[in-house]
């Protein structure tokens, strides 16, 4: 029997019981669609995550080099304008911009309270922070916009050092060589690691004016697209260690995200494969459904099989017909599932 004749007979047999054929094919469609969608989403999430970690909010490739002073009480700021020029000279054709970055939150400063040297955590503010005052006054607009001397002290530190708010409000705090007046006592926020969970809140302009060594704690570098960030950043670190302005007072470090990104990518890929494997169980169930349908179909069509064998059909030809029917079911369901899965993945990424 010719293959075209087999296809015609198989198609007629499947359409004779459309509901059963469609329900059997539906299992394959659902299985294929779920696997394709999950794998596409997993790969998309992996690519987006790695891209976001390699770029800043504007989509540019950036890196940060940090200066770590040898002493926690060192007065150096770490980076100066000469370091900016040095970074540019390392790879002028690969670097778009180099800026000195000033930390503003949870700074560790060497200060003096009640004639006692102490390490203070501080956050620089440009407006009155949203804190609850326990005593004293808020920071005024004048003190925030000029290089004034007013600061807010935490209630916790006021109690520890001055044994009360009243004594703290009549005292001063020394940071570096600059004296600041304590004008208010604020309650420490309940949230741990908050930018306001510090010992002292200092107006940014006042702090900058009081710095003995203007500069910053980090060097932010923006590279040209397609640059090898890890290689270039490490080259800049080596150059800073040789000729950096503060090379004798500390060390320069760059955290290489390459291994971190590789690990994150492996984790996401593993999770995608795991979830995809679970979803593929539905394909196994759908396959069993096709087997069950063909078994029932063969049982119900025993009279048809007998008539065909009586007119000369061989067992091999009858077997080919049933195999062709199952192939047509699974192939049609697979194509529909692939199309639906791709369409769903595209819609999710588009919106």
TrEMBL record:
It is found in: Cell membrane. GO terms for cellular component: plasma membrane. Residues 21-237 form the MacB-like periplasmic core domain. Its main location: membrane. It holds the Pfam family FtsX. Residues 277-348 form the ABC3 transporter permease C-terminal domain. GO terms for molecular function: ATP binding; transmembrane transporter activity. The keyword Transmembrane helix applies. PANTHER family: ABC TRANSPORTER PERMEASE YTRF, MEMBRANE COMPONENT OF TRANSPORTER-RELATED. This is Macrolide export ATP-binding/permease protein macB.
